[in-house]
């Protein structure tokens, strides 16, 4: 073996000479295979042979580990092993003291040991460019190694692997369809021309999540003012979301988080929450609705004025008084509100109003209204309170509601109206002066002759008794009817008599005329009859 490291140019020179000047008797050295591709760390058998008419000295010059595994006349087979790098080796033969050579080359191949697609953004906005990076370590021969980036099974780019580690990148426009799609990186070692085939290695896939959060504020609907102690429903909606179901909503009154009920539709979201207003929150508060999707947020804030407005206190010095008593009516509102009190003279608006009243019968069941007004965020609110005064009076019986003179026709239907007034309501009864017979008040009755007379009506309550005389006259129509009937009968009788008399007279006259005619006829016959 010629030490190749110390005299590198010599084998090349000899090879050239050998090729140009074939040895005596056509002596020639050959090697098989001339080229080989082997996996890294693998081994190969190399057969060196010489065409020489006598025994030739054969050898293989290599820096690889070699072992003679077989030999014959003018051939030797070596095993080369532990091949980590591409290399070349030279077979040489000395035939008749002439050396000829043949070289062979070895190419090592290996699969990439590391193929990785760099992490994708947690969320990718739709319509923005996404850059994919792939890193490949190892793998050769590089001339046969390429790197592909894929979206699902769609090839985005295929580039040769350059550098160590090799980096390949490409940009894609993220779309809605990319939501949930796997991206990955794949290497391809193409050794088909070497008769070995196509070797692929893939990275672990990475799933992309894309989203759309429109650049508009959510629509927040809430009352502008809220009263302490009440609760309100507030709504917050946003349309055009993708994927809507992944969106989150945050509803808060100042820093108090509300618990919204969220409903999702195809591309929108609708959140509703109850706001319970406590006295501690009095004043101007901010209601916020935020919609969070991907790594973005859209929010809206509304001002809400929280107020406290108790109804005014309306008090009567006494709620039930005898007639003629002075009663005070007073209305007081809470600070900030002004009151209007019915019955009081209208003055400048003030937080309280009052007046005195000499209670009369007309004031019984009179209702007083106190209306308090408060301005909250430019809006005037009213709260009302009413009180009813009861005045004790009576009993009373007067001409208007209990007439003292009733005149009715007998047998007509009449309602006896007599109303006594008072608080408490008096008991009323009417008795006939002469016999104490009771007059039925308030019923629909047939008037009878025996109802007439003078009655004493008496209204009684615990406040006293009042009496009133009521005269009932019943008109008897019977006499008139008899007269009419008699006249009618008389007329009938007279007309009948006259009629009959006229008839009889007429009939007598006709009979007489007939008899006369008969006599005249008989006389004429006697004259005409021949004797
Ligand atoms: C080596 O080559 C020679 C000449 O071509 C041949 O005769 C011999 O059989 C070969 N040896 C092996 C082991 O292939
Ligand atoms: C959201 O993510 C994208 C892509 O990763 C990034 O460009 C953007 O700055 C992020 N936006 C926010 C508000 O964090
Ligand atoms: C995305 O990248 C392409 C080229 O790679 C460019 O033409 C396009 O304007 C980019 N789009 C956006 C939204 O940045
Ligand atoms: C690469 O692919 C080959 C076959 O295609 C396989 O034998 C090898 O184990 C793969 N390498 C890795 C790191 O997955
Ligand atoms: C919120 O939605 C509910 C149900 O549709 C509705 O009754 C309520 O009035 C809405 N609230 C506001 C403040 O719009
Ligand atoms: C209240 O009115 C009654 C009757 O009108 C009168 O007699 C009485 O004196 C009045 N009382 C007062 C305190 O004015
Ligand atoms: C109204 O009455 C209630 C209870 O009687 C009392 O607590 C409140 O302070 C009163 N309001 C005013 C304005 O006087
Ligand atoms: C209270 O009274 C005022 C004035 O009379 C009236 O305008 C308002 O409608 C009333 N409010 C209520 C709730 O009854
Ligand atoms: C009652 O009325 C009748 C007729 O309507 C009248 O003739 C009579 O004088 C009146 N009596 C009294 C007491 O008013
Ligand atoms: C009138 O007469 C009827 C019977 O005809 C009798 O039932 C009724 O009680 C009498 N009424 C009075 C007030 O006398």
Automatic annotation (TrEMBL):
Superkingdom: Eukaryota
Lipid bilayer topology: Single-pass type I membrane protein
Annotated signal sequence range: 1-27
Gene Ontology BP term (one): immune effector process
Presence of keyword Thylakoid: no
UniProt keyword Cell division present: no
TM helices/strands, residue ranges: 481-505
Keywords tagged on the record: Cell adhesion, Disulfide bond, Glycoprotein, Immunoglobulin domain, Membrane, Repeat, Signal, Transmembrane, Transmembrane helix, Ubl conjugation
UniProt function note: ICAM proteins are ligands for the leukocyte adhesion protein LFA-1 (integrin alpha-L/beta-2). During leukocyte trans-endothelial migration, ICAM1 engagement promotes the assembly of endothelial apical cups through ARHGEF26/SGEF and RHOG activation.
Entry protein name: Intercellular adhesion molecule 1
Species assigned in the record: Molossus molossus
């Amino acid at each position: 073996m010629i030490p190749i490291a110390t005299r590198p140019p010599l084998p090349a020179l000899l090879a050239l000479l050998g090729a140009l000047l074939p040895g005596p008797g056509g002596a020639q050295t050959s090697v098989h295979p001339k080229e080989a591709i082997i996996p890294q760390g693998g081994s190969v058998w190399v057969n060196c042979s010489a065409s020489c008419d006598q025994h030739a000295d054969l050898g293989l010059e290599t820096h690889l580990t070699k072992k003679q595994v077989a030999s014959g006349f003018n051939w030797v087979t070596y095993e080369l092993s532990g091949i980590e790098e591409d290399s070349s080796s030279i077979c040489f033969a000395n035939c008749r003291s002439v050396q000829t050579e043949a070289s062979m080359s070895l190419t090592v191949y290996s699969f990439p040991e590391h193929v990785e697609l760099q992490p994708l953004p947690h969320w990718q906005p739709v319509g923005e460019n996404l850059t994919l990076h792939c890193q490949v370590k190892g793998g050769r021969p590089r001339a046969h190694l390429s790197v592909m980036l894929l979206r699902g099974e769609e090839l985005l780019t295929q580039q040769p692997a350059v550098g160590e580690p090799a980096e390949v990148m490409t940009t894609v426009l993220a779309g809605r369809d990319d939501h949930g799609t796997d991206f990955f990186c794949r290497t391809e070692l193409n050794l088909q021309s070497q008769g070995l085939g196509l070797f692929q290695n893939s990275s672990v896939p990475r799933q992309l999540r894309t989203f759309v959060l429109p650049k508009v504020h959510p629509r927040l609907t809430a009352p502008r003012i809220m009263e302490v102690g009440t609760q309100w429903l507030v709504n917050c909606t946003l349309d055009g979301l993708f994927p809507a179901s992944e969106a989150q909503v945050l509803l808060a009154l100042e820093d108090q988080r509300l618990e919204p009920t969220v409903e999702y539709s195809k591309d929108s979201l609708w959140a509703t929450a109850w706001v319970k207003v406590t006295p501690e929150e009095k004043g101007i508060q901010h209601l916020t609705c935020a919609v969070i999707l991907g790594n973005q947020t859209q929010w809206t804030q509304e001002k809400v004025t929280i107020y406290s407005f108790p109804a005014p206190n309306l008090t009567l010095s006494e709620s039930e008084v005898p007639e003629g008593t002075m009663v005070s009516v007073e209305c007081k509102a809470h600070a900030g509100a002004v009151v209007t009190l019915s019955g009081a003279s209208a003055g400048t608006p003030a937080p309280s109003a009052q007046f005195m009243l000499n209670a009369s019968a007309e004031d019984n069941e009179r209702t007083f209204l106190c209306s308090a007004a408060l301005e909250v965020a430019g809006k005037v609110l009213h709260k009302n309170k009413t009180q009813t005064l009861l005045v004790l009076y009576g009993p009373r019986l007067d001409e208007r509601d209990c007439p003292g003179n009733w005149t009715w026709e007998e047998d007509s239907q009449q309602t006896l109206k007599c109303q006594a007034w008072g608080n408490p309501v008096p008991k009323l009864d009417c008795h006939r002066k002469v016999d104490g017979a009771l007059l039925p008040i308030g019923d629909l009755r047939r008037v009878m002759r025996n109802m007439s007379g003078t009655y004493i009506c008496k209204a009684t309550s615990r406040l006293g008794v009042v009496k009133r005389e009521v005269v009932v006259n019943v008109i008897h129509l019977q006499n008139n009817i008899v007269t009419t009937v008699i006249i009618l009968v008389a007329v009938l009788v007279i007309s009948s008599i006259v009629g009959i008399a006229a008839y009889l007279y007429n009939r007598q006259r006709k009979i007489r005329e007939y008899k006369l005619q008969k006599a005249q006829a008989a006389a004429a016959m006697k004259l005409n009859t021949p004797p």
